[in-house]
């Protein structure tokens, strides 16, 4: 029964995608256009130069394309399934999360796991196509591939807890739309989605080092393209793991306090 409940919770958002073929087609088209445009942009930028900010053209293109693919892992439409914390708070149905046999924190984690596995399947398929087409280059060695995989896993855990904090904000504000928009912009900027952090001023890089966003994407991709050497991988992985522990403890505290504020709003 516990396994069945976990399976049902994990497939909530992916089922919404799979049962809506036009949405999947649009996602595929958008992802394809993003990859083509990003690869063309960085190739154009490196047309007249060899190495910039410690990256050559192939490294820069690989980094940029992988950033697009990695962003797909959590880019799912939760609103269509009406299962976001914001919607439940607005309609008053959040109370049912606390009446089910499955604790709300476990349900939230299982649902996020299903979303990430589904998004990872998209990213992996896109990576295979880009690798076969020569758009991205393979990792430098098996050790680099292993460290990258571990770092990517830790990065996704950090991202999960960051998104959880924003959703938990609804228990105090009822709405988190503005916070989500700010988070998405900050995440894309400070994690290196728009551009590798090495292109930014030193003060910006120093500031981002004190925030968790860099650990979500910039570190894994930097390890993959070789911008961070394997000799420094241990420290970077420790920083990522530290953020996971800190955010896990913080969100656990918020779950306890949130339970005291559950109300039926609207509905």
Notes on the protein architecture:
This protein is mainly alpha-helical and 267 residues long. It has 2 domains: 138 residues, no CATH class; 127 residues, no CATH class. The protein is 69% helix and 1% strand. It is built from 13 helices and 2 strands, in the order αααββαααααααααα. The chain has a two-stranded antiparallel sheet. A hairpin with a 2-residue loop joins strand 1 and strand 2. Helix 7 packs antiparallel against helix 12 and helix 7 packs parallel to helix 13. The longest helix has 30 residues. It is globular. The two termini are 30 Å apart.
What is the strand and helix layout of this fold?
Layout: H1 2-10, H2 12-18, H3 21-45, E1 51-52, E2 55-56, H4 57-71, H5 85-91, H6 104-133, H7 142-168, H8 170-173, H9 177-190, H10 202-209, H11 213-216, H12 218-225, H13 233-259
Helix pairs in contact: 1-6, 3-4, 4-6, 4-12, 7-12, 7-13
Transmembrane segments: 117-136, 142-166, 178-197, 237-255
Keywords: Membrane, Transmembrane, Transmembrane helix
Pfam families: ABC2_membrane_6
Question: Share of helix among residues?
Answer: 55-70%
What do the pLDDT scores average to?
Answer: 83
Helix/strand order: HHHEEHHHHHHHHHH
Total helices: the number is 13
Describe the strand arrangement of the main beta sheet, using strand numbers.
1-2
Unreliably modeled segments:
none
- The structural class is mainly alpha
Concise summary:
The chain is mainly alpha-helical and 267 residues long. The chain contains 13 helices and 2 strands.
